[in-house]
Amino acid sequence: MIVKEKNQNYIMKQDLINSFEIDYIFENKPINRFKSKPTIEITKSKLNDLQIKIKNLSNCELKNNAKQIVFSDGSFKNSIMIVGEGPGQKEDELGKPFVGDAGQLLNKMLAAINLKRENVYITNVVNYRPPNNRKPEPAEIIRYSEFLREHISIIDPKILILMGSTAMEALFGSKIKISKERGAWKEIIINNKTYLTIITFHPAYLLRQADQKKYSWADLKKIRKKIDELNIKI
Ligand code: URA
Predict the structure, then answer these.
(1) How many helices, marked H, and strands, marked E, lie in the chain?
(2) Are 232 and 79 in contact (CB under 8 A)?
(3) If both were cysteines, with which of 64, 102, 120, 215 could 204 make a disulfide (CB 3.0 to 4.6 Å apart)?
(4) Which residues in 154-228 belong to E strands, given as ranges?
(5) What is the pLDDT of residue 155?
(6) Does the beta carbon of 219 lie inside 6 Å of ligand 1?
(7) Which atom in ligand 1 lies closest to the alpha carbon of residue 97?
């Protein structure tokens, strides 16, 4: 259908055109022809679907022993996503990631590079507390990595920060060592999209190995520099 606008331009009727499942948006403006990022509502609904999928897992020792799912915390609007290992006791009680001692240190690490925890998006490889805080088994990491990949696709971060060897293993496999891989920018392709990724030490590890904090600080500074280079507004 064609309608005549006041400015004498003929444009296709927006509502009708935009109602089709196509990758363009027709507007009466010279810019913004491509579909922009999904709306907040769509992202929220996809996150909700993913959470339901994880809650419906069967035959999962982690789920069977945990109090509740620990899905995520923070904001998905600012393009920075952090992935830890899995919930501990406090996270299991409160249903939020990184709220115990490691979480306190994470908050300080973020503050050191001028980031507020509530402005980044935080999740874990496994979404249920492993019994006695054991490390997730390789089979569990593989099983949950499918959800993690979907999670990353939904959040679509500009910077992905993998904290600790479990997060590294979930996306890059178990053949590499965190001591060698940390601190370098890498690219990972998920669902045909490339994500800029950095591996760094887990705060719980830093609580045990304070002498490693200097490496963590070097990584944090690289992250800040990249945020500035990419002009990410947080
Ligand atoms: N360690 C993690 O990896 N994640 C949490 O949520 C808490 C501690």
Answers:
(1) 10, 8
(2) yes
(3) 102
(4) 159-163, 185-190, 193-200
(5) 98
(6) no
(7) 6
Q: For residue 124, how far is its CA from the centre of ligand 1 (angstroms)?
A: 7
Q: Which residue from 89, 91, 169, 199 has its CB within 8 A of the most atoms of ligand 1, so it is best to mutate?
A: 91
Which of these, 230, 145, 149, lies nearest to 189 by C-alpha position? Answer: 149
Q: What type of residue is 86?
A: G
Distance CA(186)–CA(206), nearest Å, equals 22
Which residue shows structure tokens 């200097």?
214
Torsional sign, CA 92, 95, 98, 104: negative
Closest CA to 32 of 57, 8, 14: 14
- For strands 193-200 and 159-163, give the pairing: parallel
Contact 166 CB / ligand 1 (< 6 Å): no
Closest CA to 54 of 75, 70, 65: 70
* Whole-number Cα distances in Å, 230 to 31, 39, 119, 194: 21, 22, 16, 15
Q: Which of 213, 202, 214 is nearest to 106 (CA)?
A: 202
For 113, the token pair is 């590079």
pLDDT by 10s per residue, the chain, length 234:
444 444 444 444 455 444 545 444 455 555 555 556 789 999 999 999 999 999 999 999 999 999 999 999 999 998 999 999 999 999 999 999 999 999 999 999 999 999 999 999 999 999 999 999 999 999 999 999 999 999 999 999 999 999 999 999 999 999 999 999 999 999 999 999 999 999 999 999 999 999 999 999 999 999 999 999 999 998
